[in-house]
Design a protein that fits this description.
heterodimer, A: 200 residues, six-stranded mixed beta sheet, 5 helices, 16 strands, B: 198 residues, mainly beta, Pectate Lyase C-like, 1 helix
């Protein structure tokens, strides 16, 4: 697997290109823009784009989609929405498993953050979008949503290998083990639910 | 992207390191491996997707080297010099840096969370979008450096000097800052609240 990291201006968000070295097929994650550098990376290496994954419906993650669909017309966009930036999308749901470009991609819904927020897990890499960035849990509107979000994040982070690498939509990467043990938001007892209480 | 393949030693979960089937602890001849890796760093200028986890680097120089997506987690760097060295999306979690001298460094989108940094200097460097959350940093100097959008959430800093640094969007929330100075820095552009426990 080869991973390219791309900083998107002016949002300062992260776009990731994940490529299989054997097949030269790739997946683009959160295309906040499709600038010349990103196109050059794809074209110079003769990568075949097999899909676009979107973690959330904000311009920082979606603004590049219309350009992308003009440059690479057959490519499919996967998101929890039916359309983004007026482009049709393949709607995905929590628990779905996608097979794209030779990768097995697990879809993890985060409805407590927003209806369309999803995480994508590819091997030991997780693309967390705005839901979790290094040291911080994404802001939500009320305490109830925050409690549910923190509970769900803790549930997944603690079941993954601590060395699982988290690539957020903004800012630097982190690791599951570091976040679950040290992230103050995730360890705030005010947002813990009793174990017996069902969530979702 | 580096692949964390477990060490060939039975029961060991540490990742195997570059050009070996074993982790550093289970190297048949660690000294020979260190010499081999030193030669490798001298011969090449850029390195991508390689695992160097748990390796103790002592008195190494890394001038004009570029590292991309490399794993240095749990490494120790003692009396090393980084001059004009670039690290892009590299992993230094739980690493220990002691008396490291960094000059004209370019650190970009890298992970230093939970690292221990002692008696180091980072001068005239770009340390941008770095994850320095929960580091333990003592007697260290950041001078004439750009720390734009880096995070020091929950960091424990003691006798740390930030001198004439760009702190735009640098996040020091929940950090403990003892005898830490921010002379000539744009501290008003940094995120300082909430403070960590004293």
């Amino acid at each position: 697997m080869r991973l390219y990291y791309h900083l998107v201006f002016p949002h300062l968000s992260n776009t990731y290109l994940v490529v299989s070295e054997e097949t030269k097929e790739g997946i683009l994650i959160d295309p906040g823009s499709l600038d010349i550098h990103l196109v050059q990376t794809i074209e110079k290496n003769q990568y075949a784009l097999k899909g676009v994954l979107v973690t959330g419906n904000t311009p920082a993650h979606t603004e590049g989609i219309p350009t992308l669909l003009r440059v690479y017309p057959p490519v499919q966009v996967f998101t929890a929405e039916r359309s983004l930036e007026e482009c049709p999308c393949v709607s995905i749901h929590d628990g779905d498993v996608l097979e794209l470009g030779g990768f097995r991609i697990e879809v993890i819904g985060m409805p407590a953050y927003s209806r369309e927020a999803v995480l994508y897990k590819i091997g030991n890499l997780v693309f967390t979008g705005d839901v979790l960035t290094a040291g911080k849990v994404g802001a939500v509107l009320n305490t109830f949503s925050r409690t549910l979000l923190i509970q769900r994040l803790r549930q997944y982070l603690s079941q993954w290998d601590p060395e699982t690498i988290l690539f957020p939509g903004y800012g630097p990467p982190s690791k599951a083990g570091i976040e679950v043990t040290l992230n103050a938001d995730l360890n705030d007892p005010h947002f813990f639910l009793p174990d017996s209480q069902p969530i979702f | 992207m580096f692949q964390a393949v477990p060490c060939a030693e039975e029961g060991c979960t540490n990742p195997r390191i570059y050009s070996s089937e074993y982790c550093f602890q289970h190297q048949p001849n660690p000294q020979q491996y260190l010499e081999q890796i030193k030669r490798f760093f001298t011969e090449q200028d850029s390195f991508a997707g390689l695992v160097f986890a748990y390796i103790p680097f002592e008195r190494y120089d890394f001038p004009n080297k570029t590292f991309y997506l490399c794993d240095f987690s749990h490494c120790t760097f003692r009396d090393c010099t980084f001059q004009k060295t670039s690290f892009r999306v590299c992993f230094f979690d739980k690493a220990q840096l002691t008396r490291v001298k960094g000059l004209n460094l370019n650190i970009y989108n890298s992970l230093f969370a939970t690292a221990k940094i002692e008696e180091c200097t980072f001068h005239e460097s770009n340390i941008i979008l770095a994850n320095c959350n929960w580091i333990e940093c003592t007697q260290t100097s950041f001078k004439d450096s750009d720390l734009y959008n880096s995070r020091f959430v929950g960091a424990k800093m003691n006798k740390v000097e930030f001198l004439d640094c760009n702190l735009l969007n640098t996040d020091f929330s929940l950090s403990q800052r003892e005898e830490t100075s921010f002379k000539y820095c744009n501290l008003q552009d940094a995120i300082l609240e909430p403070e960590g426990p004293v």
